[in-house]
């Protein structure tokens, strides 16, 4: 178990230390549960009242909150960011794999870098290139000529299809599929004719992808995900989608084919984006957003009806069903008023 003194953490965070620098911490906990040997944080002043009963060995907080806590403190500009950084230092998550399991299959033509770890029953097909310090969990499949960059970690049962390119320092959670066929078909008098998907998926560096997410390969060109993108669980990214640098997408979102999402966008959970549209840089779409047209300027966008008590929702739904009739009546009244010169 990793442990750091408060003086060491202050140095790593660029924080101001108040208290005893020799105190060691080995883990992070919430303010209400933290005890000896643990560090916590206060990022929202509305929870300041919890400081009075906090038993943590230290608290990371802003200068404006420090007078409300009498114990050891690390004074920082952004406590939540500091929490993330300290959590990385104290991370106890195990490796996805260690060494190369005897039950794993690695094709003789595959190229493995230094310190590659491959779990039980994983398969590495012909021509695959695996970078240094890559961890490939149990049951993973790496297809022909796929490339995985240095330091990337795949948890159990991840599937990487042929020719897919995955960058450095990426993290892919269990059961995600990257490079499956896009939804491409032609119709011949009612019969579906499959269009082979000959593009691939190209994913940049420091991309994180949640569990059970699917990212389809391109039909002709590639599906592209740029550096520093984070994608949550159970999402569908269709063929030829492009996602710009630093964009974050929450769980259950569906993006239809050939949609282009800009840089630093935030897509709320369970949103649906229509195909062949473009989303500008810096756009935020709140949860359950239905995006049918391109968004050309940055800003926050929402759709849908917020939750209501069922009785009120039924009334709202009934009114919505009559909108067309109400619109016709309104136009009729406007026309009569215009004829009267009013």
From TrEMBL:
Q: Name one Pfam family in it.
A: LpxD
Coiled coil where?
A: none
User: What EC number(s) does its UniProt record assign?
Assistant: 2.3.1.191
What GO biological process terms are annotated to this protein in UniProt?
Answer: lipid A biosynthetic process
Catalytic residues at 239
Is Lipid metabolism there in the keyword field? yes
CDD domains per record = LbH_LpxD
Offer a single GO CC term for the protein. Answer: membrane
The record's keywords, sorted A to Z, are: Acyltransferase, Lipid A biosynthesis, Lipid biosynthesis, Lipid metabolism, Repeat, Transferase
Provide the catalytic activity annotation.
a UDP-3-O-[(3R)-3-hydroxyacyl]-alpha-D-glucosamine + a (3R)-hydroxyacyl-[ACP] = a UDP-2-N,3-O-bis[(3R)-3-hydroxyacyl]-alpha-D-glucosamine + holo-[ACP] + H(+)
UDP-3-O-[3-hydroxymyristoyl] glucosamine N-acyltransferase non-repeat region domain span: 23-89
One annotated GO molecular function is: UDP-3-O-[(3R)-3-hydroxyacyl]-glucosamine N-acyltransferase activity
Spell out the InterPro entries in the cross-references. Answer: Hexapep, Hexapep_transf_CS, LpxD, Trimer_LpxA-like_sf, UDP_GlcNAc_AcTrfase_non-rep
Its annotated pathway reads: Bacterial outer membrane biogenesis; LPS lipid A biosynthesis
Q: Can you tell which superkingdom this protein's organism belongs to?
A: Bacteria
Q: Which family does it belong to?
A: Belongs to the transferase hexapeptide repeat family. LpxD subfamily.
The record's annotation in NCBIfam families points to: lipid_A_lpxD, PRK00892.1
This chain's function reads: Catalyzes the N-acylation of UDP-3-O-acylglucosamine using 3-hydroxyacyl-ACP as the acyl donor. Is involved in the biosynthesis of lipid A, a phosphorylated glycolipid that anchors the lipopolysaccharide to the outer membrane of the cell.
Known partners and oligomeric status? Homotrimer.
Q: What is this protein called?
A: UDP-3-O-acylglucosamine N-acyltransferase
Query: What organism is this sequence from?
Result: Photobacterium ganghwense
